[in-house]
Amino acid sequence: MILLIILVILAIIPGVVLLLISGKMDRVDKESPGIIVSILLMEIPFIIAAALLEGIFDDFIMGELLGFDEANLIGIIIRCFLIIGPAEEFCKMMGAKIPTWKSPQFNCKYDGIIYCTTSAMCFAIIENILYVATSQSFVTAIFRAFMSVPGHFMFGVCMGIFYSRAKIADVKGDVAGRKKNMWIALIVPAAIHGLYDTLCFAGVPLALMAESAESTGEILASAGLMIILLGALFLLIVGIYVFLFITLRKESKGDYFFAPPMPGWVPERLRKKK
Fold first, then answer.
1. Sign (positive/negative) of CA torsion 193, 22, 50, 98?
2. pLDDT at residue 69, rounded to an integer
3. 185 domain residue, yes or no
């Protein structure tokens, strides 16, 4: 029981830390606790919806229609890019959009990042808890803390950038711009999510290939592919950290009001003097 409690705490901490970092960089107009809580609560049923969608598509499309199993590389690619990525990112987007799109608090360019990373971290934290509770492993907790959770956060940042652009276009009456940016807000994180999951899951068929190898050449080929796979995954993880460092600083510095401030708004320089 104590082990489980420790693992659950470890599963929660990374997402909370990343949310605090993101919130700290929201310098123009801090979001109210109410809208953050509303996103967290709204995301919960969408997490369930994502699990149901993935289960249905996995069983019907991957199993019955295409006949792929979890150890098939082509099946993994299809599953990651066409099922997991789109389903999870769509559900994160809905968790952020429903409570915020028409809110008068959605009035700054950086707000979209706050909203989408909040829904992404809610998703990641609950997913994390399920993983560590099932595995009962510190290795799983550490692996996900430094890879999976920052990955979800990065997907949320990408989504938030274009979600804000869609809102800005909407305020300007640019219907085409709103639609275009909303689609990009879904497609870009879904594609990166698909790539990340593919690199994580592709090790299964490669390991099976190595086990069934009958010659030295086949063993070396499997080992070579595994090294390439791990190298690509490492580069992607490094890229995620670099992207987050650069993009959050850039978006924070470039934040501005695109709609009127809420009543009682006080500039940051005056807030610091109080």
1. negative
2. 66
3. yes
